[in-house]
């Protein structure tokens, strides 16, 4: 656990430092992109799709909610670190390699941007692997990074459209509206979609039994992210035919397929969690009668309401603590049953069981005897 704490601290310091540096770079770039009023308008408009997108990924992340600090770190990484690094690297590439605008958009941008976004997921896998339980966690973190990246990128595109510096027209409200429709209404999912492939690769790497398998999963996820991004960007500059046709025949079906896959993963997590906790209960790690109240989401909410009714705020907090520890134990036990337990499996498992035993005497589920305090 000492090593886990040290790695968590290193991860926090590295991400925080890079986010601060990236934020400074992006503030300068944004400040040079237009008048303050234009930038304020572009920021407000670019923020509109952020809330709904974040809510969708939080909905996927219901069985074992990821730490809000880490999710926020993913947003900050995408918004500041990935955008700043991508702009600098693409600028250097254009300066020394002589890429023209079409090559930069269709080829260089996908390679660089997916690398800078995916770096956050690799850091998670390296230093905070305990927070990753599979592909759904990878998709959720990738989504947060993609949302942050798209938000800042959209500010720049919207400001350029309004100023008329995007080379597409005289600018103004009409140009701003057109850009908003394309980037914020028609395709707000683009960057989360691309980076989700890296998230899936990271999720597969967590469960891989070999180093080669982990590297293959990461490389494949990155390659698919770059490929999808290239197809999208190539369509935007007219290299793959009509943009609308590419959108309807390729990108929209790909997006719907990923949504269906993520929803299926969410449902399968419930089944997996029930099986793992049922096995843990047979081993005496927790009461078998508690398992239904720990897996079904509506039952979880009912248990928290029951705890608040009979124990007030402290009772509800105790129930939340018990449910969270049990779910984390369930995911850990699942990896043990699959034969891919993490190196600190025993220590983490004992910690979760200790948390359960410390809280269990003070809670009850509907239909059980309420403990006296």
From TrEMBL:
Keywords: Hydrolase, Membrane, Metalloprotease, Protease, Transmembrane, Transmembrane helix. One of its GO terms (biological process) is proteolysis. The chain crosses the membrane at residues 9-32, 38-60, 69-99, 105-127, 139-160, 180-206, 215-232, 244-265. This is PrsW family intramembrane metalloprotease. The keyword Acyltransferase does not apply. It comes from Nocardioides jishulii. GO terms for molecular function: metallopeptidase activity. The keyword Protease applies.
């Amino acid at each position: 656990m000492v090593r886990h704490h040290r790695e968590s601290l290193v991860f926090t310091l590295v991400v925080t430092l890079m986010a601060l540096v990236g934020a400074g770079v992006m503030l300068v770039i944004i400040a040079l992109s237009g008048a303050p009023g234009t930038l304020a308008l572009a920021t407000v408009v670019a923020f509109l799709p952020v809330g709904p997108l974040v809510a969708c990924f939080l909905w996927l992340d219901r069985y074992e909610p990821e730490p809000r600090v880490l999710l926020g770190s993913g947003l900050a990484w995408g918004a500041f670190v990935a955008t700043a690094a991508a702009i600098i690297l693409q600028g250097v590439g254009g300066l020394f390699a002589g890429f023209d605008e079409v090559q930069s958009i269709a080829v260089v941008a996908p390679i660089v941007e997916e690398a800078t976004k995916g770096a956050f997921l690799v850091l998670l896998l390296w230093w905070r692997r305990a927070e990753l339980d599979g592909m759904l966690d990878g998709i959720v973190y990738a989504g947060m990074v993609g949302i942050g990246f798209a938000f800042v990128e959209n500010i720049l595109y919207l400001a350029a459209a309004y100023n008329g510096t995007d080379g597409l027209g005289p600018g103004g409200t009409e140009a701003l509206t057109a850009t908003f429709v394309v980037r914020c209404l028609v395709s707000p999912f683009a960057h989360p979609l691309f980076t989700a492939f890296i998230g899936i690769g990271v999720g597969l790497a967590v469960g891989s039994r070999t180093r080669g398998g982990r590297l293959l999963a990461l490389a494949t996820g990155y390659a698919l992210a770059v490929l999808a991004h290239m197809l999208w960007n190539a369509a935007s500059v007219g290299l793959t035919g009509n943009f609308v046709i590419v959108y309807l025949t390729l990108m929209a079906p790909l997006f719907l397929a990923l949504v269906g896959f993520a929803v299926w993963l969410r449902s399968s997590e419930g089944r997996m969690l029930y099986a793992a906790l049922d096995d843990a209960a047979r081993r005496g790690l927790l009461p078998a009668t508690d398992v239904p109240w720990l897996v079904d989401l509506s039952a979880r909410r009912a248990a928290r309401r029951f705890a608040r009714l009979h124990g007030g705020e402290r009772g509800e907090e105790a129930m939340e603590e018990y449910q969270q520890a049990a779910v984390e134990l369930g995911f850990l036990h699942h990896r043990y049953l699959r034969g891919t337990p993490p190196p600190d499996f025993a220590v983490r498992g004992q910690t979760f069981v200790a948390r359960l035993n410390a809280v269990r005497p003070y809670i009850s589920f509907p239909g059980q005897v309420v403990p006296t305090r």
